[in-house]
Amino acid sequence: MAKIVIFTGAGISAESGINTFRDSDGLWEQHRIEDVCTKGCLETNREATVSFYDARRLDLETKKPNKAHYEVAKLKEKYPDKIAIITQNIDNLFEKAGCDDVIHVHGFLTQIKCQSCEYIEDIGCTKQDDAWENCPMCKSGLRPNVVFFGERAPYYEDMFKEIDDCEYLVVIGTSGAVLCVDLMIGKEMKHTVLNNLEPSSSLNHKKFKKVLFKPATQAIDEIVQDIEKFLKDQQ
Question: What angle (nearest 5°) sits at the alpha carbon of residue 177, between those of residues 174 and 180?
C-alpha cells in the first residue's frame, strides 16, 4: 500500500470549469438529488436521470486538466508505488492529465454499466443511448457507472485499505459533506494537509497539520514540494 494518499474532491476540478454539486450555483441548484442521484431514480425517473448524466458526460469533452491535475499525475508517475490517488470526482481529468491509476470512489462518468451483471464499458464523452440499448452480455438495461445516494460504493474498501497504511494524507478540494475526511486521520499519519478554497463547517480543520485556503492550482507547488521532501527524507 502507498505511504502517501492524495484525496481529491470537486474543488480540484472546479478550476477546469467542471460544475460542482454543492456550491451555491452548483448542479443541485437546478436538479433535485432524489430525482437524478438517489437509489431507485432509474426506476422512477429514468429518462431525466440518463439525460442528466449524458449532459455531464458531453460537457467533459471540452474540459481540460488544470495545473493541480498535472502536478499530481507527475508525482504519481515518479513515485507509482508510494502514492495513491483517490477521488470523489466522477470526471476524467486525472486520466486526461496522464494518470490512469486512480480510485474513483463514486464512479466514473465516461463509463456505463449493466444493471444486472458486472459488464462495464467506457463510452467516452457520448450519450448513453448512442452506445447500446441493452447489455451485450445479458441483455439487461444499462446505467451510468455512478454511485447514487443510498447505493453501496464498491470502491470504499479500496479507499480504506490505502488510508489504513497511509503516513501522509493530502486532501484537496472537498467540503467533507459526503465523506468525513478529517475522521480518516489516523495515529500513524505523520503529515496531514488540507487544501480548500475556504473553511467548511463539515471539516475540523484543526485536525490537519497544514491548512492551505487557496485554489488548488495555487497550492499545488507547495504540496508537491512537501511531498518530495518527505520522500527524500525516507531514503
Answer: 80
pTM over 0.70: yes
Which one-letter DSSP state was computed for residue 181? G
What is the number of alpha carbons within 13 Å of residue 147 lying toward its C-beta?
Answer: 16
Go through the domains of the chain in sequence order and give each one's CATH number. Answer: 1-17+64-106+152-235 (3.40.50.1220), 19-62+109-146 (3.30.1600.10)
Rounded Cα distance between 94 and 146, Å, is 17
- Give me the active site residues, please: 106
Owner of C-alpha cell 508517475:
77
The separation between CA 128 and the C-alpha centre of its own chain, rounded to angstroms, equals 21
Going by C-alpha positions, the residue among 135, 185, 16, 21 that lies closest to residue 88 is 21
**pLDDT for residue 190 is more than 90:** no
Strand stretches in 78-190, DSSP E: 83-87, 102-104, 107-114, 120-122, 142-146, 168-172
* Strand 107-114 relative to strand 142-146, pairing: antiparallel
Dihedral through CA 96, CA 102, CA 103, CA 105, nearest 10? -20
Least confident residue range of 80-89, 102-111, 176-185: 176-185
pLDDT tens figures, 63-76 = 999 999 999 999 99
Instruction: Check residue 203 and give its pLDDT.
Output: 93
The pLDDT score that the predictor gives to residue 215 is 98
Tell me the C-alpha distance between 214 and 198, whole Å: 7
Q: At 87, list the grid cell.
A: 477521488
Alpha-helix runs per DSSP H in 100-164? 156-164
